[in-house]
Write a sequence for this structure.
């Protein structure tokens, strides 16, 4: 499948119209809960290296050890440790500690995280077609 076909396929999965219709079908209490969850997710994903870490899991085909993540992403150990703890606490990753010498700890995505992974695929396809222009501030001058 070529890039254009992949982008078209992703765009046809959920349209803005579908999202609006779904949102309008929710009660105000449900809408508030969804907005809270989205805000909390974006706050978590906006933290340093959070997107890089989850993206690594999205494209990995096996559980990952701390050292594998650290070397793949070149993230300072303290920062990586904190992010992984936050993902475990949020229910996005599970942590398995093995009683071995040397100690071995593996992280794997939970079904909750796996449900987010198509978003990472979509973002990567979007990035193939687009790029951000960091030199512009988005303002129009006349």
């Amino acid at each position: 499948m070529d890039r254009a076909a992949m982008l078209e396929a992703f765009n046809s999965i959920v349209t803005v119209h579908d999202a609006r219709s779904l949102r309008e079908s929710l009660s105000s209490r449900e809408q508030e809960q969804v907005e809270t969850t989205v805000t909390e997710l974006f706050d978590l994903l906006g933290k340093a290296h959070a997107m890089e870490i989850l993206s690594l899991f999205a494209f990995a085909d096996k559980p990952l050890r701390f050292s594998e993540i650290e070397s793949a992403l070149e993230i300072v150990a303290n920062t990586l440790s904190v992010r992984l703890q936050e993902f475990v606490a949020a229910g996005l990753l599970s942590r398995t500690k093995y009683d071995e010498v040397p100690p071995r700890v593996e992280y794997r995505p939970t079904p909750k995280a796996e449900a987010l992974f198509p978003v990472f695929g979509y973002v990567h396809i979007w990035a193939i077609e687009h790029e951000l222009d960091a030199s512009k501030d988005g303002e129009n001058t006349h």
About this structure: The chain has one domain: 3-129. The mean pLDDT is 87. Helices lie at 3-13, 16-25, 28-45, 50-59, 66-73, 77-89, 111-114, 117-129. The longest strand covers residues 93-98.
